[in-house]
Queue: 2 jobs
Job 1
Amino acid sequence: MQITEQFIKLDTPSTSLVFRRYSELLEIVYYGAKIGDAADYDILSSHKRKYAHSCADDVITANMTFSCYGMGCDRVFSLSLKNHDGGYANKFLFRGARAAEKPIIPGLPSSYGARETLMLVYYDEDYDLELRQYYSVFEDTDAIAVSSAIENRSAHDAVLRSFASCQLDTDGCGYTVFSYTGAWARERYPSVTQLSVGTFEQGTSRGSSSHAVNPFLMLRRPARMGGYLAFNLVYSGDHRERVECTPMHTTRITVGMDDAFLEHLLPSGSVFHSPEAVMLFGEHRADISLQMHRFVNGHIVPPCFLRERPVAVNLWEACGYRFDRGKVLEFADRAAEIGAELLVVDDGWFGRRDDEKTSLGDWTDNVEKTGGLKSLAEEVRSRGLKFGIWIEPEMVSPESELMRRFPQYVLRNPRREPILLRDQCVLDLTQREVWDYVLRCLRDLMELCSPDYIKWDYNRFITDAYHAPTSAGEEFSLRYIKALYALLARFREEYPGLLIESCAAGGGRYDLGMLCFTPQIWTSDMTDPVERIHIQEGTLAGYPQSTLSAHIASEVCQKTGRRTRLRDRFALALEGVFGIEYDLTQCSREELADLKQAVAFYKEHRDLLLYGDMFFAERAEDGEAAVHIIVSRDKTRAVALVFRLRQIFNCEQDKYRLCGLREDAVYRVGIYGSDRTWDVQGKLLLSHGLDLGAYFPKDRSGVFSNEINSLVLFLRQV
Ligand code: GLA
């Protein structure tokens, strides 16, 4: 970090962020590839800015780190207050910058292991408010963690109406926005929006980061500038991202909590600290995923989970609610036979849960089904497997003991019946009694069967947030998410080694907040590889493969009715935390042998597959093929997943280039399922590619879909 009279410069391993001070105005004058320290950076910006109350010209166009009404600017505001006198105008002037400790954000998780933190201080003299912004950089990733805090030093209360975690103003307009949107079973499909002048906005008010729009966002800068920007938020609740390209040809990006219901009382003497945001510059698109992955693996996921994750067999897709002890043990036998390491009993083991209408909240063993979970878990373990179990702790079914006894636990508007989604209601975790009850249920479950793994589900979103008069002034979504984090933190503290996989009707809460507690997330309920390739590719844009739970499901997908080859489902499961979700008890001997081989392959390459660097030579979003390559840090080993997504009839072009490898090395290339190997120069792999046409199955029977056709290659430097 370099701080001079006029300039502040912050470096990451390969990027720099430079601010320039013009008296009481601070401007971002550079964000891009790393530059050396210099005595001055005058050439970066030729403006002679000054801020004067009677002249707003500079604030209209300056690249600021925050914005509010009252300083002469009418663009998107990163912060908005209702002051004690009822007015909305504020004027924060720059007061100084210094190296600081990375702040701990009360009630919210944030990244760990920063190298250094810069604090910017602004002050509104008229209302006695201090704004502090923190920029933390890391040794091994270009991601920058940014958060903002506002302190009310006055003797009066104020109300916070919006407060973004991060604002980045940058030059130019004509940005291309890559957002990751969808719905249940269609999460994080990449979507591209070309901006000219105007505002792109996305976000959600559902109480969770949502299936609809992920907080991860990437921008391609206009060609004159080059490079990419990306943002994310360490938060699991309502969020909002805005990209405003102005008529003056500047662009403002704000990232933070949603402000639709934000009316946060800021009493005299109090501080409000935003969730942490992440921003990143990369010269190439490949840098964005690579650097984000490093950030998540090295600074978000708790270090104790940065190890091998067990290969799971989960009963859900095969059995739904229909299983009994005999079935579970049959699965366990097959799971052990094929080399899996964890058996997961999903939904349906408790209360009278034979369909989705009942029993959430009644976490009592359904002994008729399980024959006693404790001994069942032991029997599973005696086969050399770990035991895992599903729970949906934040929910209650109207048809349940819990609802009958404690209807007041439900999140609802007291004037109305709560709105049902998937026949269930949300428990109001913000009530202490409810929070205690849920923690007791989790402890009881641990007591009952000492699971090695828990799948923590959340199958609906919040529709009944209600601001009771006593809690006026506090946004519900934030309080809920804080209560959830406190619960996860306490539970993890009590059972530190326990592996938790989070899930929200598939990937409805796939975000950096959850990843601070649960290292892996069930990516999506969509298990048809033709669809899932887009979901996984979209997810991998911002999240590393170690977070992405990916299971081989049945040949005929229950959702789409499409029949696909085992090889295609296998190839996709390799780019995540590998598991199996289909009926092992109905498999033929050959199928079991194939699965055994698949599991062995995964285990052999597990470390590389989970933690290697991920590159994309071709993307499914471009329509023809996807080539995803996972390369070891030293570039001596790699696994390449080649997905042909369109069979162009009578066409000779079936060559696939790789990337991320060393040009000057020779690699021995093998294809999974074939005995042949080839020694190929890295340069050839990168520039010409491999002609793989002859190695895809030539299946014209019509039994299997040819909308996806995959090959798994493994490479080792010779
Ligand atoms: C959600 C999950 C599934 C399964 C079911 C059980 O949909 O995503 O994997 O656990 O709930 O009800």
Job 2
Amino acid sequence: MHQDVEKILLSQQALSQRVGELGEQITRDYAGRQVAVASVLRGSYIFMADLTRAIQLPITVDFMAVSSYGSGTVSSGQVEIKKDLSDPIEGKDLLLVEDILDSGNTLYYLVDVLRARKPASIRICTLLDKPERRAKPIQADYVGFQIPDAFVVGYGLDYDERYRNLPYIGVLRPEVYGG
Ligand code: IMP
Ligand code: MG
């Protein structure tokens, strides 16, 4: 375990099993359809790679990037699109993939922006959900794990752009971010 990690919350094995289950569920729910899977960089890059390989349907993948946290651990509430999707989504079944639904500021804003482009449907798949911290009325259609209010890193999630490559999800020691 990394020295800056207080404890492992979700092991590599737990992640792999749950991501497989989500893929099966999505495969069943969208049977016979083509899904436009879009993920929000950078936190969801590993989840996106594993989840899409667990979906047994014809899919397309696309990416967008938004600013959220800077180097802090608390959402600013200000969301800015830094990189937009490459392809139009009009008439498509859009599955938006996120690493974590925390305050909900990011997804609340994004869903609003994307809905205006008239997709046939929008659903949200988030690996992690911290329901206690929600500031906006938004929930995900697919949730990997509900987790308590602790700052976590690994499997794509960062603190100040570090720790994304840890293969598990762990709770960061508060000393590391001055908490
Ligand atoms: P929200 O807008 O507050 O829902 O935050 C969404 C974004 O905040 C996520 O996509 C993450 O990048 C970041 N975030 C929220 N909680 C954590 C955490 O515990 N660890 C790492 N990043 C987090
Ligand atoms: Mg982040």
